[in-house]
Amino acid sequence: MNQDVTEEQIATVVTKIQDLGHSVNISRGTNRIVIGAIGDEHKLDPEMFDSLPGVEFSMHIVKQYKIVSRESHKQDSIIDVHGIPIGGNQIQVIGGPCSVETPEQMDLAAQSVAAAGCRLMRGGAFKPRTSPYTFQGRGKDGLEIFRQAANKYNLPIVTELMDVRMLDTFLEQEVDVIQIGTRNMQNFDLLKEVGRINKPVILKRGISATINEWLMAAEYIAAGGNHNIIFCERGIRTFETAYRNVLDVTCIPVLKRETHLPVIIDPSHAGGKAWMVPALSRAAIAAGADGLLVETHPNPCEAWCDADQALNPQEFKDLMVSLKGIAAAIGRTI
Ligand code: PEP
Ligand code: MN
Question: Contact, 327 vs 290, CB < 8 A?
C-alpha cells in the first residue's frame, strides 16, 4: 500500500480479497503495509487491485503457470512419439525440408533424413509466409505427399498447423506431432484446440515472446488436458541484423529449471544461413537441448522456401556425426 494509506482504504482492499473467497494477512512494517491474499492465487489478477485507492502495486508471488511448471512435476517429462522418446537421455534430431514440394523431393528428403540416423521428419504443408504472394504450401495434398514419403522410411511426421479448421485433416492424415509456429504462439484459440487432443505438440517461441509468455502459452495447451508439449526455441528478434534471428541459448537452462517438459532448438530459423547451422546445433546440444529441428533439402538451391538455410544431405549427415561427439561428452546419446 502507499505510505500514506488510510485505514479505510486498507479495509476496502481487505473486503475485496474476502469477497473473492480468500483470506487476508496484513503485515504492518515501519514504513509499509503489505496485504496478502491467501488461497488459490491463480484466480486473482493484479489488475483487480491496482486501481483501488491506497494501493501502490499488486503482484503474484507464485508463478502463473502450474501444469507445465517444474514445481508441479519434479521429474523430466518424456514425450512418446510412437515409441520414440523426446526429453529422455537420447537426443532427437528432426530433419526435413521447410516445405513439402513434390513426391520426388519428399522421397529424397525422407531417404536422407533416415540415412543420417534421424527418427522423425519435419516438413510444412501450410506455410506462414511474410508475403501473401509467395508459395503458401501445398496444403492438404502436401500432407498426403509427406505421409507417404515418411511412411516408406518409417518416420513419424512433424508439421505445422496454422488454422484450427485444418485440425480434423491433420488427425485424418495421422500427423504424429503438431507444430505451432512462432507466429501462432499466442493464438489462444488454436492452443486451446490442440489442448483438447492428445497428440504431441511442438510449441515454437514467438518472435518476441518472453519466456513467461511462452510458458503461459504452453499452459493453455496443458490446461485443456494435453500435456504432450515440447518447447522449441527458433531465435528471437533483437537489434542485430547480421543473422535472421538471435538463437537464445540461455533459454535452455532457464526452461529446464522452470518446466519439466522437453526443450528443442531450431538452429535453421535462428541463423537463417546453412553455414551457421552446425555451430548453433552444437551449442544447443552442449547447453542441454533435448533435440533439434533442422531444415535439410535434397537440393537446397532449388528449395521453394528457406533455401538459404537448408543443409544438403551430405552436410546434414556430417552434422549428425559431429553431434554424436557433443552428446557423448555430456553423457547423452543421439
Ligand atoms: C518452420 O518451421 O518452417 C517455420 C515456419 O518456423 P517458425 O514458425 O519458427 O518461423
Ligand atoms: Mn522454414
Answer: no
Helical H runs in the chain? Answer: 7-19, 47-50, 103-115, 140-152, 167-172, 188-195, 211-223, 251-258, 267-271, 277-286, 313-329
Q: pLDDT for 86-145, tens place per residue? A: 999 999 999 999 999 999 999 999 999 999 999 999 999 999 999 999 999 999 999 999
Give the DSSP per-residue string, 38-72: ES-GGG--THHHHTSTT------SS-S--TTBTTT
The bound ligand whose nearest atom lies closest to the alpha carbon of 245 is 1
Which one-letter DSSP state was computed for residue 312?
A: P
Report how far ligand 2's centroid is from the alpha carbon of 57 (Å).
43
Q: What CATH number belongs to 79-329?
A: 3.20.20.70
Give the start-to-end residue ranges of the domains of the chain: 7-50, 79-329
By alpha-carbon position, which residue is closest to atom 10 of ligand 1?
A: 182
Q: Which amino acid is at 313?
A: P
Count of residues in the chain: 334
Q: Verify whether ligand 1 is closer than 6 Å to residue 204 (CB atom).
A: yes
| 51-53-57-59 Cα dihedral, nearest 10 degrees | -70
Cell numbers at residue 185, please?
504462439
Q: Is the CB of 124 under 6 A from ligand 1?
A: yes
201 to 9, 127, 159: CA distances (angstroms) = 47, 17, 10
| Angle value at C-alpha 293, between 193 and 246, nearest 5 degrees | 100
pLDDT digits (tens, 9 = 90+) for 27-46: 999 989 999 999 887 788 89
pTM for the complete prediction? 0.94
